[in-house]
Specification:
With 477 residues, the chain is of the alpha/beta class. Among the domains are: 100 residues, Rossmann fold, CATH 3.40.50; 117 residues, ANL, C-terminal domain (GMP Synthetase, Chain A, domain 3), CATH 3.30.300. It is built from 13 helices and 24 strands. The protein is globular, with a radius of gyration of 23 Å. The two termini are 26 Å apart.
Length: 477
C-alpha cells in the first residue's frame, strides 16, 4: 500500500496479533512480489483495490502460503482464496489476536536489494525497532507536542520509522502520499504548523528550485532530517538560509540497523561533509580488512555495534555471515556495513563510497543485477551493465550501458518503457548509453570500474563542451 491510514492500522494490527509485517513498495511488480510472498511464507496480504490485480497475479504464481487478502477500497474482487474488505476485517474484531510475544521476537521483515538481484529480508526484532526509535527520538528531542509531516513512502524504512517514532513519543503524524507537488506540500507544512520534516536530497533540490519562498516562512518548523544520501554542501547552505531557525540533521543509516550516525546541527557549519557520530546508545568505528580498528584519516569499513543491529537475513545464512561477524563479547555480532569511511581527529565520520555494486538512488537500494536481467529480456540487446553515476539530487543516477545485438537498432525510449513496465520507479535507469562493446577484465568479466570512469570522463567533456558527441545518452525526464 501507499501512504494511508489503513497501512498504519495494518502495521499495528499485525503487531497486536503477534504477527510479523513486511511493507512493500506499491510500485513493486508481480514477479518480485511473488518472490517476497514465498520467501517470507506470507499468510496474508493487505493491499489497495487498485493494486489488487498485481497482488492476485503474484499469489497465483503461486504463493501457496497466502490464505487471506484484505482489500482497501474498490468493489468486490477476489485476490486470494479468502478476500475481505477492510471494513469486513474490522468487523471481525479481535478474533485473530494471538500471543504478542516478547522483545526478542521478530517484529518486521524489510526487504532490501542484494547483489544477486534478489531482495533479502532484514530481520528486525521488537528490541531492534524500539532501540532505534528511542535513540533517534532522543537526539531529535521529539515530544508529544511535535507535528511531523511525512511524504516518504512507508515501504521505505525512513518513512516507516516516522510512524513508529510518532507513536512512541505521542507526536502527531501528518501522512502525505508523495512529494509530487512540492509547493502544495510546503503549504500543508505551514497549515499544520509542522515542527518536523524528514526529507531526502531529491526533495531538498526540488524545494530549493521553487520561486517565492522567503527565509523564515516556517517559524514553527523545529527540525529537518536528511538521510538516504548526503546533501551537497551547497544545498545545506541554501537550506540554512531558507530555514534559519530550523535545526538540520544530516544522518546516515542502512536497513540492517535503521540508523548509524547523525551530525549534531551545531556541527553542520564546521563540517558539512560529515555524517556525524554514532547515534545514542550505539558505537560506530572503522576497521581494516582484518578487523583492526583504524586511526583518524585512514579509510576502512564502517562497523556498527548496538541493540539495533538486525538478527540477520531471513532464510539466508550465507549473506548473514558476510555482514554479521563476531564482536567484542562472546555471542555478540557486529554489523559490517560494506561502506568505506574515514574519521577526522575529533571522531566525526565521513562517507567515502560503497564496497559493493549496490546503487543507492532516491534513497532506495537498486541492485544492478536486477536491472540488467530486465534489460537482457530485450532481444535487441546483447550486453548490458548498470552502474551508478554521482548525482547531486539523486545521490546516484542509475545508468544503463548496452551493446546492441548484431544488426539490431535500439530506441532508447523503448528501453526505458520496457524497464518501467518491469521495475520499481526508483530502479528505472535515468540514462541509457549505447556502445559498440564493453571493456572486459583479463578474466573476461565486464570491467565496471573502467565503464564508470569512462562515463564520468564523458560527463566532464560534455560539461566543458556541450556540443561534444562523446555520449549517446538519453536522459529520462
Amino acid at each position: 500500500m501507499g501512504n494511508r491510514l489503513e497501512a498504519v492500522v495494518a502495521i499495528f494490527a499485525a503487531q497486536k496479533a503477534g504477527a510479523v509485517f513486511s511493507p512493500v513498495n506499491p510500485s513493486t511488480k508481480a514477479g518480485k512480489l511473488g518472490f517476497i510472498l514465498n520467501n517470507c511464507d506470507a499468510v496474508a496480504v493487505v493491499t489497495e483495490a487498485r493494486l489488487g490485480p498485481v497482488a492476485a497475479e503474484a499469489i497465483a504464481l503461486p504463493a501457496p502460503s497466502v490464505r487471506l487478502a484484505i482489500r482497501v477500497g474498490g468493489t468486490e474482487s477476489r485476490i486470494a482464496p479468502k478476500t475481505l474488505s477492510f471494513e469486513q476485517a474490522l468487523a471481525e474484531g479481535d478474533a485473530a489476536i494471538g500471543e504478542p510475544g516478547i522483545d526478542i521476537d521478530l517484529s518486521m521483515l524489510i526487504y532490501t536489494s542484494g547483489s544477486t538481484g534478489l531482495p533479502k529480508g532484514v530481520m528486525m526484532t521488537h528490541l531492534n525497532v524500539v532501540t532505534a526509535a528511542r535513540s533517534i527520538t532522543t537526539y531529535l528531542g521529539m515530544t508529544e507536542d511535535d507535528i511531523v509531516l511525512n511524504v516518504l513512502p512507508i515501504s521505505f524504512d525512513y518513512g516507516l520509522y516516522q510512524i513508529l517514532m510518532a507513536a512512541r513519543t505521542g507526536a502527531t503524524l501528518v501522512l502525505e502520499k508523495s512529494f509530487a507537488f512540492p509547493f502544495a506540500i510546503l503549504e500543508r507544512l505551514a497549515e499544520e504548523r509542522a515542527t518536523g520534516f524528514p526529507l531526502v536530497p531529491t526533495m531538498a533540490a526540488m524545494i530549493l528550485k521553487l520561486d517565492g519562498l522567503r527565509p523564515g516562512s516556517f517559524p514553527h518548523l523545529r527540525f529537518i532530517t536528511n538521510t538516504a544520501a548526503a546533501l551537497p554542501v551547497a544545498h545545506i547552505e541554501a537550506l540554512q538560509r531558507l530555514f534559519p531557525d530550523t535545526e538540520i540533521y544530516s544522518m546516515y543509516g542502512m536497513t540492517e540497523c535503521k540508523r548509524c550516525t547523525y551530525l549534531p546541527p551545531e556541527e553542520l557549519r564546521r563540517r558539512p561533509g560529515s555524517v556525524g557520530i554514532a547515534i545514542p546508545g550505539t558505537q560506530a568505528f572503522i576497521v581494516d580488512e582484518n578487523g583492526n580498528r583504524l586511526p583518524p584519516g585512514a579509510e576502512g569499513e564502517l562497523v556498527i555495534r548496538g541493540a539495533h543491529v538486525m538478527k540477520g537475513y531471513w532464510k539466508n545464512p550465507e549473506a548473514t555471515r558476510k555482514v554479521l561477524k563476531p564482536g567484542l563479547l562472546p555471542g555478540e555480532n557486529l554489523l559490517h556495513t560494506g561502506d568505506l569511511f574515514r574519521t577526522d581527529d575529533e571522531g566525526y565520520l565521513y562517507f567515502i563510497g560503497r564496497k559493493d555494486d549496490i546503487i543507492k538512488s532516491r534513497g532506495e537500494k537498486v541492485a544492478p543485477k536486477e536491472v540488467e536481467t530486465v534489460l537482457h529480456e530485450m532481444p535487441e540487446i546483447s550486453e548490458a551493465v548498470v552502474i551508478g553515476l554521482p548525482d547531486p539530487v539523486l545521490g546516484a543516477a542509475v545508468t544503463a550501458v548496452i551493446v546492441p545485438a548484431g544488426g539490431a537498432t535500439i530506441d532508447t525510449r523503448q528501453v526505458l518503457r520496457h524497464c518501467r513496465q518491469r521495475l520499481e520507479d526508483f530502479a528505472v535507469p535515468v540514462g541509457v548509453e549505447i556502445r559498440d562493446d564493453l571493456p572486459k577484465t583479463a578474466n573476461g568479466k565486464v570491467d565496471r570500474r573502467l565503464i564508470r570512469e569512462m562515463l564520468m570522463h564523458d560527463d566532464k567533456r560534455q560539461q566543458a563542451d556541450p556540443e561534444s558527441p562523446a555520449s549517446l545518452r538519453e536522459r529520462d525526464g
